[in-house]
Amino acid sequence: MGAMSARLGLAGRFLQAALRLTRGLLGMAAPWRVWLLALVLANLVVPLAMFSDRPEARIVIATFLAGATLMTVLTMLTGFSRLLGLAHFFWFPLLYYLWTRTTVIGAEEPYGLWLRTVMIVDAISLTIDVTDVARYLAGERADLLRERP
Predict the structure, then answer these.
(1) pTM of the predicted structure, to 2 decimals
(2) In 3-state terms, what secondary structure has residue 14?
């Protein structure tokens, strides 16, 4: 893969990492795939489809896309490893910002309900991510993607 990666250039290696990341995510056990679907729905699909004119929704979308980009770069560097949880570090400031917005956006309207839902979903994800990054730092650095024939 080393010689092939050198010929691909940065864009090619990025695309290769994105495909590897996608294979890893889709290869996870069914409960984890359901969780990933919930993350994508809460952070991308719902805000794009229903609230794209609202600034908080745009920030959630941008944060999600920044995290996905960092996840792809981390896959380039470490494979499909526990370090991928680091890509959600953007969610710490995002959650603080969204929390400050709950004082002016009521929970009784759909937008306010989505705002609180995305906060809960992302906070749960962060607990998983912090655990994974800690395990990576403690030495669990294996590439978790199991290639299938």
Answers:
(1) 0.88
(2) helix
